[in-house]
Amino acid sequence: MADRRQAIAAKLILAVAALGIAAAAAVGVDRRAPAVVPHPPASSALAAPTAAPAAALPVRRQAMPAPGPLSTPTSAPTPDPLVVKRVLDIGPIKFGDYAWDTKGIPDGPVIITVDLAAQVLSVFRGGYEIGAAAILYGTDDKPTPLGSFPITMKDAHHVSSIYGAPMPYTLRLTDDGVSVHGTEVAWGYATHGCIGVPTAFAKLLFAEAKLGDRVIITRGKTLATGEAIVGHDDKL
Quick one: which pathway (predicted)? Predict the structure, then answer.
């Protein structure tokens, strides 16, 4: 009987062991090592969480144009002083008459034009007509030359060495003595090749003109506003 009991007990033990193995298999416990979660040391204070360092923002490098050569500042274009900008509104000029008006006219180069056909001398400063007068000129046997002449001499009290006649406010143009000068300007008078203007006008012109200023003498060539003064003598 004892042997039988031992055998039954052994079977029971084996049955219980089998049930334990089956239960463990059913639960399926994971035996792998758990992930290690770091903790701060017990003695240290909890640190405030730090944000991850911000990624550096890319710098926008806009392409810049290559530097060009430095340009010199330019002023506003100035009007050409050798182009007619104004003609005095005076109408026909009688012998002995003249006009002179420099009000508001800036400084500039002086050019004198003479039209023998119209018997008029005009004075331009910087392209603006500032004076005009009726003239006398040379007779057929002593004609006034055509062309462009620089003023080579100024003499306010000149007297002709050939004729002994006073030539006030003389502006000499040629080596043989052709000049612009003051005289009585009246119908029927003529000169020995010079250009005679009223003496009062000659005084004004003498003060305005300088040595080297140009006197352009033509016959029947007129100038209009906007037309070049220099070069006008090319079509005498």
Answer: Cell wall biogenesis; peptidoglycan biosynthesis
Q: Is residue 231 part of a domain?
A: yes
Provide the pLDDT for residue 65: 42
Higher pLDDT, 150 or 41: 150
Please tell me which residue in 157, 158, 181, 232 is annotated as part of the active site. Answer: 181
Domain that holds residue 145: 98-235
Please tell me which residue, 160 or 12, carries the higher pLDDT value. Answer: 160
Residue 196, domain CATH: 2.40.440.10
Q: How many residues does the chain have?
A: 236
Name residue 170's beta-bridge partners. Answer: 155
- CA dist 130 and 87 (Å) reads 8
Say which residues have a Cβ less than 8 Å from residue 149's Cβ, sequence separation at least 6: 173, 174, 178, 214, 215, 216, 217
2 falls within a domain: no
Find out whether 105 and 124 touch, Cβ atoms under 8 Å: no
194 classed as catalytic:
yes
Query: pLDDT for 67-96, tens place per residue?
Result: 445 445 455 445 565 788 999 998 889 999
Is residue 173 in some structural domain?
yes
158 is catalytic: no
pLDDT tens digits for 45-72? 333 333 433 333 333 333 334 444 544 5
Taking phi first (over 0 means left), then psi (-120 to 50 degrees means alpha), and beta for anything else, what does residue 81 get? alpha
pLDDT number for residue 81: 55
Number of folded domains in the chain?
1
- For 227, the token pair is 């037309």
Kindly report the backbone phi and psi dihedral angles of residue 23, in degrees, each rounded to the nearest multiple of 5, phi listed first.
-65, -45
In a domain, 180, yes or no: yes
What CA–CA distance (Å, rounded) separates 111 from 178? Answer: 17
